[in-house]
């Protein structure tokens, strides 16, 4: 489906939960966060319906994100439900990797094609600091398991302050090179002040060619990460919410004072 600026929208990013087992400093506050009420979280059947509708409208690529998608109970079943929908050509996930070691093979068998795993540093202490308590060794184990399971290409998302030339990013790049992983540098963004930029080595942040819309865990289609607009499927109905998100996709991003990365999915 074409939006008003003739961009072909074929990519849907679904945040399957706003919950997370980490608390990355640039993503979530440590505590005191308003989480989506359990009864407002989309069921798997509702997500399946919304994927079907999106595919009918031209979406071919789906990415599951969050929060942390692997903390959503039954996520392997959801992967299978989406993988079985005809017209879903590309099914990927973005994960922090903490729970991936035990789940990689099941995810692959269920139809997940590939994963992006977040890793900003090679230093265990710094990782613990950035994520407020995460164990980097679990991420390394998750990366190996993903490769062994064939969730390829395994890509590493590395958040940088300014550029991929920063020491931590360089160390992550060396690890990627040695382990046959590809790396994307995501500039640390701030939704509220509208600081965003292109993802180095990836597709994100290029408004002219942006092909994506987002679905939050409470069933809101969002046309742009850097825009407040959202169209709730429960209040508007599925078709209307989807159509409004496409019709109202802004030419370029500005600011989003009411959104957080763990809600919208990055
Ligand atoms: N929990 C999963 C993970 O961390 O990969 C998926 C959700 S997370 C919100 C998706 C991506 O957004 C991650 O690669 C994360 O590093 C990135 N991210 C989170 N907050 C960000 C920020 N303020 N600026 C840039 N990227 C951010
Ligand atoms: Fe959780 Fe991912 Fe946000 Fe880190 S970036 S707090 S892992 S959702």
What does this structure look like?
This protein is an alpha/beta fold and 266 residues long. The chain has one domain: TIM Barrel (Alpha-Beta Barrel), CATH 3.20.20.70. It is built from 9 helices and 9 strands. It has a 9-stranded mixed beta sheet with strand order 6-5-4-3-2-1-7-8-9. Strand 2 (61-65), helix 2 and strand 3 form a beta-alpha-beta unit. The mean pLDDT is 95.
Architecture blueprint of SSEs:
Elements: E1 11-15, H1 44-56, E2 61-65, H2 75-83, E3 90-95, H3 100-110, E4 114-118, H4 124-131, H5 136-149, E5 155-160, H6 167-178, E6 182-187, E7 212-215, E8 220-222, E9 231-232, H7 233-236, H8 238-247, H9 261-264
Parallel strand pairs: 1-2, 1-7, 2-3, 3-4, 4-5, 5-6
Antiparallel strand pairs: 7-8, 8-9
Helix pairs in contact: 1-2, 2-3, 3-5
The protein binds S-adenosylmethionine (SAM) and iron/sulfur cluster.
Order of SSEs, N→C?
A: EHEHEHEHHEHEEEEHHH
Distinct compounds present: S-adenosylmethionine, iron/sulfur cluster
What multimeric state do the chains show? single chain
Helix fraction bin? 25-40%
The geometry reads as globular
First-residue to last-residue Cα separation? 22 Å
Name a few traits of the molecule.
alpha/beta, TIM Barrel, nine-stranded mixed sheet, 32% helix, 16% strand, globular, binds iron/sulfur cluster
In short:
The protein has 266 residues and is α/β, with parallel strands linked by helices. It contains nine helices and nine strands.
């Amino acid at each position: 489906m074409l939006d008003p600026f003739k961009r072909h929208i074929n990519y849907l990013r679904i945040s399957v939960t706003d919950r997370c087992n980490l608390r990355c400093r640039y993503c979530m506050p440590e505590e005191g966060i308003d989480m989506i009420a359990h009864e407002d979280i989309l069921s798997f059947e509702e997500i399946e319906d919304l994927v079907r509708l999106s595919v009918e409208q031209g979406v071919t690529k789906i990415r599951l994100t969050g929060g942390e998608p692997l903390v959503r109970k039954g996520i392997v079943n959801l992967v299978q439900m989406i993988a079985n929908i005809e017209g879903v050509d590309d099914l990927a996930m973005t994960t922090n990797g903490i729970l991936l070691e035990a789940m990689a093979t099941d995810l692959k068998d269920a139809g997940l094609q590939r994963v992006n795993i977040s890793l900003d540093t090679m230093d265990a202490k710094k990782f613990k600091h950035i994520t407020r308590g995460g164990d980097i060794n679990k991420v390394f184990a998750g990366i190996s398991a993903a490769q062994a399971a064939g969730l390829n290409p395994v890509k590493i998302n590395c958040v940088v302050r300014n550029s991929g030339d920063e020491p931590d990013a360089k160390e992550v790049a060396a690890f990627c090179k040695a382990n046959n992983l590809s790396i994307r540098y995501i500039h640390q963004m701030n939704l509220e002040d509208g600081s965003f930029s292109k993802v180095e080595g990836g597709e994100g942040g290029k408004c002219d060619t942006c092909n994506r819309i987002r679905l939050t865990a409470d069933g809101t289609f969002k046309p742009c990460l850097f825009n407040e607009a959202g169209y709730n499927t429960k209040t508007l109905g599925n078709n209307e919410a989807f159509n409004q998100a496409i019709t109202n996709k802004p030419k370029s991003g500005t600011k989003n004072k009411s959104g957080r990365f763990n809600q919208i999915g990055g």
